[in-house]
Specification:
By secondary structure, the chain is mostly helical. The protein is 75% helix and 0% strand. It contains 5 helices and no strands. Helix 1 (2-38) packs antiparallel against helix 2 (45-61) and helix 1 (2-38) packs antiparallel against helix 5. The protein starts with a helix and ends in a 5-residue tail after the last helix.
Amino acid sequence: MLRFAGYIDALNRAVAMGLRWLVLAMVLIQFGIVIGRYVFGVNSIWVQESVLYLHATLFMLAAGFTLLVDKHVRVDIFYAKASPATRRRIDISGHLVLLLPAMAALAWWSWPSVRNSWKILEGPISVGGIEAVFLLKSLIPLFCLLVALQSLAILLRLLAGKDSA
């Protein structure tokens, strides 16, 4: 089971290492948009939307890695001062009762929208934009999958008595 958890960790690390290049692309494209608009007086909805697509991809697909490295948002009213055993119980409960059911619900309820978007190859958000909203919507189930898998890996480790990856 711990080997399986390690494979999940490796998957999310690989995804994150690939996605980090999107940050550079976003900065360069946004810089180009500003220069184009304010220096040359040109603008492109398609290019502006590309920043949105890159940003959405980065945050949706890197969420599993964020959970892996424990940099996610944690409401630690009790957690910060709790004993290690209590923290373990809080973590296990959080994954089983909150995180995994939330990912399942989000995947379940978003799937019809994603499926329909692919069925019609849903077009741009704005006139002149990127004609691939279906790809943008596909990030939702991928987000759910990567976060749920990482949650499972963490849960396996917690149940085996291991605290970190």
